[in-house]
Amino acid sequence: MTHQRTLAWHETMELHELIAAQSVGLVKVKKSLRKISDPQLRQLYSTTARALEQNLRELLPFLPKAPAFHREEERADHYFDAGDLLVLAKTSVRNYAIAITETATPALRKVLVKQINAAIRLHEQVFYYMYSRGLYPAYNLAELLKADAMHAQKAIAMR
Fold first, then answer.
1. Are residues 108 and 147 in the same domain?
2. pLDDT tens per residue across span 50-59
């Protein structure tokens, strides 16, 4: 087996999705942790934050192996808030698609189809919001990966 010096395009895109989603999730968990008073729930959030930080630390070294990767300076912080909505919409579309394939009841299928279409529209709106503000450079792989690295580092560094 030969070892490639770069990642393949398809694995680069999956790496992007994992880093982006986990960076947004880490920021959300850390913000929520500040508000939690229940010790057991607080411990669960702390454990989750440490796990996400470790995941990102393990994934980030692969970014320089991605095609056309170069780092750049920071962008607006509201990436995380918009990114949270984007991940929610994307996850909803996937979850609805799975649920629809398991649905036997026509009335339920009709509701799920209506709701998946709404989730698709939300994803489109959030994506174009982020894209139009330079928060999600979807058509420029190098810029996309630079942003992933920067956002992951910012999420790890957050206290």
1. no
2. 999 999 999 9
